[in-house]
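Schema walkthrough. Field components (list of strings):
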Amino acid sequence: MRISAQSEDFDISLEIERLKENRTDLGAIVSFSGLVRDIHGDKIIKKMTLEHFPVMAEKELSKIGELAKKRWPLEGLTIIHRYGELSPGDNIVLVITTSHHRSAAFEAAQFIMDWLKTDAPFWKKEQTEQGEHWVGAKTDDDDQKNRWDK
Amino acid sequence: MNLIYFALIRENIGKSSEQITLPNNVTTTGQLINYLMTLGDNYQAAFSQSDLIRLAVNQEYVNLDHPISDGDEIAIFPPMTGG
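Field assembly_structure (string):
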């Protein structure tokens, strides 16, 4: 499992290559990238700043990864989350799951993203033409996470 | 005790961390929040909505009834919005 909280950008194809190495048993690789959008509701986003809790951020990402590995037969897993100042179009987060079959890879990637939204210690602040503000947590995100309870 | 603040709570309080000595009657995370709110308007503004407060003691998420002691590192922050 590769976990990273970092300010630098990531290279999706390089990260996929790392998981493939010389393996020929992987039937499925799913990757999810989250990007900075330039519009949020009726506001134009000029910049986004991501604050994080150093060390704990990576610990929490690892915990979420371990939970996913317990539920699905994953062969490989990468979770990268950026922090610092970002612009529209920039990468924020990358999740890659590999498995023998697609359903495990798809479901695990979605599970990781749903958990990460509410449980990883990162906070977004948006800079708009009207000024800057911290993004509020959405109850929607709690619902998305809770659907995995059972 | 070492306190760390993040995001809007950090901005409202006006500092990212501080050292405090716990009064004897403060033994839980909830009591700590109530105590901090007596320290000034900036703390009151930071903690005015209790449903928007999250805590970690020694980097583990806890609720407002969690026991605390002087050697702990306590982080206080709003609900997370990463991803």
